[in-house]
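This entry is passed on directly below:
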Amino acid sequence: MNRRLAELRARRELLLARSAVQRDALALLVQRWRAPLELADHGLRTLRYAREHPGAILLALAALAALSPKRAFRWARRAVLFWRGYRWAVTALGRLAP
């Protein structure tokens, strides 16, 4: 019985050491992805703001159109393309997620 307990303690120490090494490796991996994930998070916050405040977006577009109609049409075209890409990505990711 005592020998079995010693084996279990040794196995536990080995597993604890292995998990510490894996935690350190994971921390290094996550560190490399920190900046891209923060950028993506910022983009999502911007999209949420735009969804919650459509009036602000329309006001900005109206001001842009008043200042330069040609530029306003160019940005409107870009916005439509972005919106289509966003909807496509949401649909595609929705199919992947259960």
About this structure: The longest helix spans residues 2-52. Residues 54-98 form one domain. The chain has three helices and no strands. The mean pLDDT is 87.
